Amino acid sequence: MIIADLSNRELTRILNGPGLRWGSGPFSIHLKNSIPNFTDYLSLIYGGHPVIEEPWEDIADFHIQLTTNSNYRRFWKPQVFFQLDGVNHLAPFPKDHAPPMFEWGWNFSIAGRANHFLILHNAVIAKGDRAMLLPGIPGSGKSTLCAAMVLRGWRLLSDEFALLHPESGLVFPTARPIALKNQSIEIIREFSKDAILGPDFAKTRKGTVAHMRPPDDSIKNMDQVAKPTWVVSPHYQEGQNQILEQIPKEHAFLLVAANAFNYETLGDAGFKAVARVVKESTIFNFRYSNLEEAVETLEIMTNNDKKGLAP
Amino acid sequence: MAKSKKAGDIFVEVWNKPAIFSTLNIDEQDLFLRIARKAGLLSRFCNILDTAQLSDSLTPKVKNHLQGARVVAQEDARMLRWEVNRIKRAFVGSDLPLILLKGAAYLISDIPMAQGRLVADVDILCKLSDIAQVEELLSNNGWQGVELEPYDQRYYRDWMHEIPPMRHSERLTEVDVHHAILPKTGRLNPDSKLLLQDIVPVKEETNIYTLSPVDMTLHGVVHLFYDSDFDKGLRGLTDMDGLFRHFGKQDEYWQALIPRARQLNLARPLYYALQMGVEIVATPVPKTVQEEIKTHAPIQPIDWLMTILMRRMMIPNHPEEKNFLSWLAWFLLFIRSHWLRMPPGLLFKHLTKKWVRKWRFDVRNRRTV
To answer: Does residue A221 form part of some domain?
Structure first.
């Protein structure tokens, strides 16, 4: 059963009561929620994700609750609180921003807890089992490029985290929604009519945010791990001529390591995992302004690269 | 295990008998792991399972959570060893001994309980008259006093048993420099000279010392039952349990413990620690010691009340449960710890100051949300 199979009423009842469990690649979540408009968001954006039904065979990785004020603030500028295991780790958002609160909170939870992975702050997409990592500081166009590639048939692993398994060197998909910010929202709407976007949330810390539902194929394949094959560091700049240039490996190491949330935490294992990515992938700086051309360029580059393909 | 069993009971049962963890159903395992994580004990539990070779038969997700916890504890230990190494280097050229307290002492002197134990900063002890020199040595080597409001500066300098934390400007790690184990203003004031006379060198190290086994124990006990560390109560109790178990293998330790506690005027908190340890985590305490320490129990009604309050603080609740009685116990113990910390007039001023500040902070925050 997938989340979209549940009627809005059933979903609301479950979220208000025992909580809903669903899978997201290597993670499972157990969510309780009492915010009314959140249910619509969940069935639209997470509709394709598989519900974990009783009896479950393993623990839930994250026990999360979205709650609202119980005091006078119920009536005056109510807020939404994100609780992980009953603790508010984050400052609340206004109540009608439950979806961005949820996404940010879950990201926070993964980044703080999933230390069995080396967690890189990258978007990750794949063709078959060859993965492309897109590191990038906020504003570099990482999410936009990721969304565009996915809308042209690439598999979405994650818009936020490359979950690198230190022993195997493989990256695990979560197939969670892509968070688009500000102008990117309109750009992606125009880029493809297949894009399924949730509502706009204005005036968040990152400006206006909207979430793109992961393609069903990406969700179906979210248990299929992929091998880092390319690292492409995007730099969007208006009016910029397109340049895709390879970076020498010795420079690339810091590019990859500096984007890790827990590089130091993993110590030796973190160093080896980064070294392996750098050694085994081709690494690029990518300056562009036209999204259509950018997608085509990466398409051509990867099609010409036979590395990692079965003979 | 029956469904009706309380979260805290499940936790205590498994903590005391880790082999039954794998026999719990998956929801109970989940609950146990959540409580352990919240109490800061997941990585220690992981280590206990590893040592007893009990981690192989677990589900994939449980293994992942344990691995995540293991990695974090390893980082803490790595950080702590490096920080001790750096402080030791800063001390080179001076004739000061480097005396480690608490977590750093447990780890560097290889007490088994330190395996998988989480740590935040390094605590060291020196003579009151050496404070200025220690501060200077640390300042010359990259540490800086954390910037504080004048009130907080005064709080530390005039009333506390430590100076404001020194933070390293690059690594952002903190050193707490103590000159005593309880505040200057406190009801009890164990003489630091006695502690300093008995320090013991750490094996295979030069110029690194810890308190003697009994003093190390009493320091932990004081923190847990006389200071305000009781909100990490369960963790503190397992620390004490670890010390009792490790040092308790020697008979001399048990013979020295109570006399030393009397000498330092710390027999009452030791009574609480032994009582709670035996009750909650089955600390193996010789019968004679259990009998003898009872002479230091408070009068019956206080003893009874304290037992109830401390039990509430130590035995964990369900992670999502908001328990009024637990909050009340916390509140009463908080008041008690402050009562013991400073005389009533000063206490009143201090709490008023803190509450006004908290209220102002809340109001400021609300405006921006």
So the answer is: yes
pTM: 0.90
Query: Are A123 and A225 found together in one domain?
Result: yes
| A252 domain-assigned | yes
Q: What is the pLDDT of residues B123-150, one digit of tens each?
A: 999 999 999 999 999 999 999 988 888 8
Question: What distance, in Å, lies between the first and last C-alpha atoms of chain A?
Answer: 37
Tokens of B225: 């039952």
pLDDT attached to residue B207:
93
The answer to whether B104 and B201 have CB atoms below 8 angstroms apart is: no
- Return the biggest CA–CA distance within chain B: 63
Name the residue of chain A whose CA is nearest to B66's CA.
A116
CATH of B70-211, one of 1.20.1300, 3.30.70, 3.30.470, 3.30.460: 3.30.460
Q: In whole angstroms, give the CA distance from residue A113 to residue A217.
A: 28
Please, which pLDDT band fits residue B360 given cuts at 50, 70 and 90?
A: low
Same domain (yes/no): A101, A159: no
Q: Do B26 and A264 touch (CB under 8 A)?
A: no
The parent domain of residue A123 ranges over: 118-304
Token reading at B75 = 């980082």
Partner residues linked to B37 by β-bridges: none
Task: Identify all chain A residues contacting B72, using CB atoms and an 8 Å cutoff.
Answer: 115, 265
